[in-house]
Amino acid sequence: MPLTDLPLSARPREKLLAQGAKALSDAELLAIFLRTGVPGMNAIELAEHLLNINSTLHDLFNASEQEFCAQKGLGAAKYVQLQAVLELSRRYMLEQCKREALFNSPQAVYDYLTIQLRGLQQEVFMVLYLDSQNQLIKDEVLFYGTINAASVYPREVVKAALRNNAAALILAHNHPSGVAEPSQADKLITTKLQQALALIDINVLDHIIVGGENCVSFAERGLI
């Protein structure tokens, strides 16, 4: 059934305008992004089909260009459009982080780091440099590892913190396995970094692990 044959209250665009974006299902939001369907499927049906074969929005949005474009109703133009939307989301979250005192707004940190790190196939170690008001100066990926581990060198973290004139840091890394629970190695490197940075009066406020849809905060767990 064409979307134009549906009642106004069932059409994604009209429903969004009337009730807000949060009232829409994943398929309805994706249908707005797709704009049109394909022969035999309207935009909502196509969106439902794409979600069924990809399992989650995460899988769809993190597909490679070749994998994405090979799917029904998608192509290079949609891939470019999606990448632009995702990058705008990242930049929006960065602006939010720069405006807020991050240690007082953990949800903003979680949201930003999730956008940055979720779905990466390689483990990376990121540092958020904060000023004396706990506002973001800069974020930087310092180390890249294999899919299983990243080698983190305290000396390099100390040098980077001094270079960016940081008063405090938030550490972050991802677990490509999707399991956000900290390992013993994660706890050990956190302790080493705390000790090294304490010598130059720089506080480690938190260490956040992103795994799949979840984040684990060392500060909330009492590990820092």
UniProtKB/TrEMBL annotation:
MPN domain: residues covered: 102-224
Keywords: Hydrolase, Metal-binding, Metalloprotease, Protease, Zinc
Alphabetical list of CDD domains matching this protein: MPN_DUF2466
InterPro entries: MPN (IPR037518), RadC_JAB (IPR025657), RuvA_2-like (IPR010994), UPF0758 (IPR001405), UPF0758_CS (IPR020891), UPF0758_N (IPR046778)
4Fe-4S in keyword set: no
The organism's place on the tree of life at top rank: Bacteria
Hydrolase is among the record's keywords: yes
Pfam families, per the entry: RadC, UPF0758_N
PROSITE patterns xrefs: MPN, UPF0758
PANTHER family: DNA REPAIR PROTEIN RADC, UPF0758 PROTEIN YEES-RELATED
Family to which this protein belongs: Belongs to the UPF0758 family.
NCBIfam families: PRK00024.1, radc
Protein name: UPF0758 protein
Organism listed in the record: Pseudoalteromonas gelatinilytica
Lineage of source species: Bacteria, Pseudomonadati, Pseudomonadota, Gammaproteobacteria, Alteromonadales
